[in-house]
Amino acid sequence: MPGTVNERSRPAGSACEEEAERLLGHRFSRPELLTEALTHRSAAHGKGSNERLEFVGDRVLGLLVAEWLAERFPSEREGALGRRLAALVSQPVLAGLAETAALAQLINVAPNEAKAGVKRRATVLADALEAVIGALFLDAGLGPARAFVRRAYEPVLAAQPAPPKDPKTALQEWAQARGLDLPRYVLAERHGPPHAPAFSITVTLAGRTGTGSAGTKREAERLAAAELLSALS
Length: 233
Known about the structure:
It is a single chain. It contains ten helices and three strands. It has a three-stranded antiparallel β-sheet with strand order 1-2-3. It is 55% helix and 10% strand. The longest helix is centred in the first third of the chain and has 22 residues, at 51-72. α9 (167-177) crosses α10 (217-232). It has two domains: 15-158, Ribonuclease iii, N-terminal Endonuclease Domain, Chain A (Orthogonal Bundle); 167-232, Double Stranded RNA Binding Domain (2-Layer Sandwich), CATH 3.30.160. The chain has helices at 15-24, 31-37, 51-72, 78-88, 91-100, 111-115, 122-140, 142-158, 167-177, 217-232; strands spanning 184-191, 198-205, 208-214.
């Protein structure tokens, strides 16, 4: 996934920033954006964490992946493209890409959080990857962001020959095929400020439970269903 860094004249940054630039294939003219993208809220100390850039990167990623899917599958209908998009920008895929890129070692977290293994959490990895995409877009525009996203996602997209089913639909069909009751979704926790809530949902089926956390109930349910499907399989 690493790319060729576009060299620009400026003082060298930290080792983590330089490694992130190598990963992204871009030399930042505003390196403070990259610093912010790699800063977990636990290490922000009153300054900018990567939450705002994650918000930007989420939208940029969705646009670029949707654009690429429309090009790559010109005969597919909107519903199929939507399922592909939802799967590709999901937390598990983002976290997997971040793991492949060894992004965890570049994230700045508080020492006590590092000891607790926060850097390896799927939510932290996924948010950090979206944040660096947001930083790349704000520093250089859609072109470099597009190049990075396509380079990173090519193996994932190649492994998706057919549009995936929505996890909630697939889980319901799994239950019906075995004559079981339908999956039961329960809101386990709601936290965060009113403008940026976070929901934790559990889903139970056949004595097994899956959990998902996201900024919307719908996405949390989808993640919970995906986790339970993986366990049942």
